Amino acid sequence: MDQSVAIQDGLQRDENCILVSFCLRQPLVIFFLDFFFALLSDSIFIYTHRRMAITADDVSLEDVIPIDLDFAVVEVSYKDESLELKLPFGSHSRRFLGEVIRAWSGRLLFFSWERFMEPNVHGQKPFSFDRNKRSRIQKKIFNSFVHIIPPKSAPPPKKKKNPVFLQLDQKPWVKVKGNLDSLKYSNERARSSGPAPTDESPVLAVPQLGLRDNLIRCELLKNEDLYIYREHFSFFLGTYNVNGQTPKESLRPWLSCTPDPPDVYCVGFQELDLSKEAFFFNDTPKEMEWTKAVSDALHPDAKYALVKLVRLVGIMLLFYVKKEHAEFISDVEAESVGTGIMGRMGNKGAVGVRFRFHNSDVCVVNCHLAAHVEEYERRNQDYKDICGRLQFRQADPARPPLTIMKHDVVFWIGDLNYRISDLDAADVKDLIGKKDFEMLHAYDQLKRQIEEEAVFVGFAEGEIDFQPTYKYDTGSDLWDTSEKCRVPAWCDRILWRGKDISQRHYRSHMTLKTSDHKPVSSLLVVGRVNGDSYKKTLEEIVRNLDKMENECIPSVTLSKREFHFEEVKYMAHQARTLSIVNDGQVPCQFEFIRKPNEATYCKPWPLSSSSGGGRGVLLRRGSAPSYLPSCYGTPIRVLCRLREPIRDMPRESLRQMNAGSAEKPLDIPKELWMMVDHLFRNAIKQEDIFQQPGLRSEFAEIRDCLDTGAADSLSGGNHSVAEALLLFLDALPEPVVPFAFYRQCLECCSDAVVSALPQCHRNVFNYLAAFLRELLKNSASNRLDVTIVATIFASLLLRSPTKQDLAEKRKAREFFQHFLGPSSST
């Protein structure tokens, strides 16, 4: 959690807290502060705190450490008479060596307390340490930090009063030789998130994989039985759909259910907050409430550090590790992806954290998939979207991001929402009463989809010997007694993928009654590398590889050198296959390489500038694609002039219409009318309309129907048509409210603003507003309210030419909401 607010609260006007970092072994917090002192850029302030720092009263200042010459430190452990420096989790680590190199510039680094004590711009000395205390702090800092050897040709530094020079000793954190052409990590003491710019990589890390490194890794995988052994590193995985509730009871029966404390906790929540503010603005106070509840409930026999928290609306993942294992955690990254309506809304989707633990790359995914018994295909689609879109950036920006399946170990937790099919509620409850979970599991949708290899190929799940975790009456153990009387189901699941993983338990926790779900936990034990055996195996592989490289020359053949994409459609995936045949005698690895002076190996294709659409199409390599004209991505003024399907129009005619036409236009685009008319006739009472995504396959049929005019009515479900309408509005090059009117609309919720819009844009605005007012008259059935509708459509009708901030989003919602009231008749 960000506690910089507590520090900022106690600072002066010209003092700014830049970064907060936690120590691993002591209850201390270290802060970087940007001061406007003369000749001083940054300082480390060491604070003590007794609890979670909320205000300035919760912390007290212990020491101040100046940082000169643009040098930066990322984490400090402060104890006794020594000051130990650690590389922390995540992206801060990869800045460490960069700061060393940037500060070096071919000269010795020195820090002068006399310069630090010079008066600042206000004529005041910031702090007054006596000389003995300064000397003691200097020793604490520099006897245990970075020791730099200057080049032999470097001139000796000029003497200054009380300078402190960085000297070489036998225990460096980072050893820098010569002009920093080579760097060497101390693998036992610290790990960096970034790759080492040297061939002298740590034996157990291999952080940057070139051709030779990948060949070595392949051989290591073949011989892993020689160096992998079972060590008791336990991962506690937990998932809990809390139904928008606040913590009302201790979570210890769930999180402290193991006799021995786990080494790692990965705790996932769904439906953390069901409020509209959380849904539309991703802001909720319940994040802190549930994080505190989890921290208080971790196993009492160990101390844990919160490594990472990631949240998308109501989907949250917390990653804790035992403090004694913290130094073996590196390369921490977090990402999220929404799979709700239009593939963006965060009410459904996933969050993920990836990290390196010892020598294993681990990825943890927490997801909330589509609801309702009949929507298993949409859940399958959500799973595939998450696998394809959840990507973690690497330390080297030139390298492609890591997908979920690129990790050695994958843990997947969450409310997967797969239900029990082909049994009614009475039969399900009867089997539960008999504890015949094996028979009941045969009707589980997830089990069937896995057997059909539709989802989670290569994943494993433990035997389910506990009763379904959904749905209960809140505050009790009674099955759902509401009017809908949901059939019990195992919605909440935990799966894993990888080698050398065994499960110790898989259970639900019935004592917790806060939600209509019950929490689930699994304790998994993961194998790790034996360092000595690994080193011997690695050395043998390297020797054999050296011999093989001397004897063999690599050779490969490509199946093609050019790629052609024909008839590219809006939101239609196209791929071409390249076959690379190794016709030599040595293993080979291929990669796309960058041209000189270019940042990436291939430039992305520009979006189509024709009136036929192409918005959102991205191709990686090949010749210029052939876009099929589509109403998606075509301006409103052009669509209003089209009386024939856009696919039947010659491209030259489309270009002329884009420039202008004397023919009287239609009032609104016929494609827009077809979608709205379908929804008005079939979906006016559809539950969760405009809040639940449609099927990708059905959208393709709707798009083709609109573009070709092949049918007089649209096929597909109501949710698919609703999403097709939203995508149509989102793809417009110029929104319904043109960019030129954006600021005026934010400043004034007046009918006069709409009256000033171009005729075709004004007609579309009024038509949509009238339809949505009719939709809101049936809110009892479709569960819509004016805030939800206004927020969804305001972001599409009133788009900013630049990125919107939170205040602008709220003003846009208020503007459109003005036209959704019963009295509005624009």
From TrEMBL:
<keyword id="KW-0443">Lipid metabolism</keyword>
<dbReference type="InterPro" id="IPR031896">
    <property type="entry name" value="INPP5B_PH_dom"/>
</dbReference>
<dbReference type="GO" id="GO:0007165">
    <property type="term" value="P:signal transduction"/>
</dbReference>
<dbReference type="GO" id="GO:0070121">
    <property type="term" value="P:Kupffer's vesicle development"/>
</dbReference>
<dbReference type="GO" id="GO:0046856">
    <property type="term" value="P:phosphatidylinositol dephosphorylation"/>
</dbReference>
<dbReference type="GO" id="GO:0030670">
    <property type="term" value="C:phagocytic vesicle membrane"/>
</dbReference>
<dbReference type="Pfam" id="PF21310">
    <property type="entry name" value="OCRL-like_ASH"/>
</dbReference>
<dbReference type="GO" id="GO:0004439">
    <property type="term" value="F:phosphatidylinositol-4,5-bisphosphate 5-phosphatase activity"/>
</dbReference>
<dbReference type="InterPro" id="IPR037793">
    <property type="entry name" value="OCRL1/INPP5B_INPP5c"/>
</dbReference>
<dbReference type="GO" id="GO:0052658">
    <property type="term" value="F:inositol-1,4,5-trisphosphate 5-phosphatase activity"/>
</dbReference>
<dbReference type="InterPro" id="IPR046985">
    <property type="entry name" value="IP5"/>
</dbReference>
<feature type="domain" description="Rho-GAP">
    <location>
        <begin position="652"/>
        <end position="826"/>
    </location>
</feature>
<dbReference type="InterPro" id="IPR008936">
    <property type="entry name" value="Rho_GTPase_activation_prot"/>
</dbReference>
<dbReference type="GO" id="GO:0032402">
    <property type="term" value="P:melanosome transport"/>
</dbReference>
<keyword id="KW-0968">Cytoplasmic vesicle</keyword>
<keyword id="KW-0472">Membrane</keyword>
<comment type="similarity">
    <text>Belongs to the inositol 1,4,5-trisphosphate 5-phosphatase type II family.</text>
</comment>
<dbReference type="GO" id="GO:0039023">
    <property type="term" value="P:pronephric duct morphogenesis"/>
</dbReference>
<keyword id="KW-0378">Hydrolase</keyword>
<dbReference type="InterPro" id="IPR036691">
    <property type="entry name" value="Endo/exonu/phosph_ase_sf"/>
</dbReference>
<dbReference type="GO" id="GO:0005829">
    <property type="term" value="C:cytosol"/>
</dbReference>
<dbReference type="GO" id="GO:0060271">
    <property type="term" value="P:cilium assembly"/>
</dbReference>
<dbReference type="InterPro" id="IPR048869">
    <property type="entry name" value="OCRL-1_2_ASH"/>
</dbReference>
<dbReference type="InterPro" id="IPR000300">
    <property type="entry name" value="IPPc"/>
</dbReference>
<dbReference type="InterPro" id="IPR013783">
    <property type="entry name" value="Ig-like_fold"/>
</dbReference>
<dbReference type="GO" id="GO:0031901">
    <property type="term" value="C:early endosome membrane"/>
</dbReference>
<dbReference type="GO" id="GO:0071871">
    <property type="term" value="P:response to epinephrine"/>
</dbReference>
<dbReference type="Pfam" id="PF16776">
    <property type="entry name" value="INPP5B_PH"/>
</dbReference>
<protein>
    <recommendedName>
        <fullName>phosphoinositide 5-phosphatase</fullName>
        <ecNumber>3.1.3.36</ecNumber>
    </recommendedName>
</protein>
<dbReference type="Pfam" id="PF22669">
    <property type="entry name" value="Exo_endo_phos2"/>
</dbReference>
<keyword id="KW-0967">Endosome</keyword>
<dbReference type="InterPro" id="IPR047078">
    <property type="entry name" value="RhoGAP_OCRL1"/>
</dbReference>
<dbReference type="InterPro" id="IPR000198">
    <property type="entry name" value="RhoGAP_dom"/>
</dbReference>
<dbReference type="Pfam" id="PF00620">
    <property type="entry name" value="RhoGAP"/>
</dbReference>
